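PROTEIN FOLDING TASK:
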Amino acid sequence: MRAIIAGGGIVGLTTGLALKSMGADVVVCEQATEIRAAGAAIGLWENALDVFAEFGVGDAVRSIGAPIETWFYDASGNRFRAPGYGPAEHRFLLVPRPELNRTLADAIGADNIALDARVIGFEEDADGVTVRFGDGRTDRADLLIGADGVYSMVREQLVPGYPARDHVGHHVWRGIVETGDEPAEGSVLTVGHHRTRGGYTPTYGGKTVWMVNQFDSAAPVDTHKREALRRASFMNDNGWGDPLNRLIERTPDSQILHNQIMYVPELPRWSGARVTLIGDAAHGLSPHISAGGTLGVEDVRVLIDRLRAHDRVADALKAYEGNRMPHYRHVHALAHAVEQARDAQEFAREYARFSRWMLTDGARHARQGE
């Protein structure tokens, strides 16, 4: 089998590695001129780490990650976990995105990666798929996988009329900076006033990553730093949030990332006969549950299992879609409950409910046959 993957992010690279492990001829097509990453760090749950281990990079990924034990705080620093849930529902690995992408790219090998290669369209036929690139070139494969994110060009042709949409009023600011004198007792996630949330945690290489987000936010008009600091003030009733403020202050404005959060609406299908979507291209979520990367990596295992189980690509893609689409209907319901949490206690309960499902029932569903 020859497979072309549109998108050289975490899910696209993982898909390439998995296909290569089953003997496929793979090329990961990245539109940028280098493998790079948007964002500072990503949380990976145990089900994603299991996938990396299955395809030979488990130890390498763990070596660049910082284990996190999550607690949830209110704006005065009172901390919460939901009763009835244990450490497993609150444990993940925080991994810097650039190092993770480099680790995956090294494992695939440069010969299997095409840079400056933007997929803009395709034509399916009975024998395969012809893939078109932005520079006018074409290439031929048995399978095209759209791992090209929320603004997916593959999705635009495969499922017209379903562009990424604004998660109206949801804005996030993030940064990564040298670790200073802030307390290092693990992940700090504060649920503040005016629908704000934020926190910080140490990560790989002596750095600390921080994040501030707000739902129902007015459109930002000031510098990234001032906007982040204004929202951080809603999580600091009594000095509890001072360490977060100092991290933001130390981060150069040019290195603070701001995003209007986008999401992918529920799609009527994910696949054609020779083309399918994976990760954010299929189900881009609001990132407030810190699980989008893990869920995308889990998609890879489901797709590979179905390709191994079926002789015809079309049958494998139908089975993959049949597993994933109902799975994500449940993900969306649970994620919405986390989003609507009114305070730290309610957030702790809904977050633990989601993570338990993802690690147990959700993981079992990913392993089920058709």
